[in-house]
Amino acid sequence: SCLPFLAEGRVVKGFGRGSKQLGIPTANFTQDVVDTMPTDMIEGVYYGLANVDGGSVSRMVMSVGHNLHFANAMRTMETHILRSFADDFYGGLLRVMVLGFIREMESYTSLDALIAAIHSDIDIANKALSEERFASCYDSDFFKHGF
Ligand code: ADP
Ligand code: MG
């Protein structure tokens, strides 16, 4: 539904679930950006492209879900960019282009299973995003100027 999907906004502190400790930091958007997501967007893991503060465009995997602590009312959109950064970029301007769906959300019985699933998501994202049909997306004006 509704892909590709573009979003831009500031990066804020997440819920401190320790993603970074697992080697999988996820940048969170402010709630007003999350609220621009299509309401029929299936909860799960997506792949696409992203950049920070107009910088180089990298591949990403993004989870779209809801926060259980707020009785399903609040949705979340968490982007793991497939490159390393020297520093955190809280407050930075994140732009994402969501290009494809990987899988629906699942609850994993162990941390190892969760990490294995994310590594498999990253493999799927890298394969898909090296396809010729996405080649022109990396140079999109959106990553330089926004909407
Ligand atoms: P939080 O709960 O605050 O989201 P995380 O452990 O998920 O904490 O870390 C996310 C933060 O890590 C991002 O907001 C960003 O500043 C930083 N970060 C560093 N490298 C990356 C990356 N490759 N992808 C996403 N965020 C990254
Ligand atoms: Mg996070």
Automatic annotation (TrEMBL):
Please list the GO biological process terms of this entry: FMN biosynthetic process; riboflavin biosynthetic process
The EC category is transferase
What GO cellular component term, any one, is given? mitochondrion
Residue ranges of domain Riboflavin kinase in the record: 1-130
- What keywords is this UniProt entry annotated with? ATP-binding, Flavoprotein, FMN, Nucleotide-binding, Transferase
Give the Gene Ontology MF terms in alphabetical order.
ATP binding; riboflavin kinase activity
- Which pathway is recorded for this entry? Cofactor biosynthesis; FMN biosynthesis; FMN from riboflavin (ATP route): step 1/1
Give the E.C. number(s). 2.7.1.26
Q: In the record, which residues are listed under signal peptide? A: none
Know the name of this protein?
riboflavin kinase
Q: What is the lineage of its organism?
A: Eukaryota, Metazoa, Ecdysozoa, Tardigrada, Eutardigrada
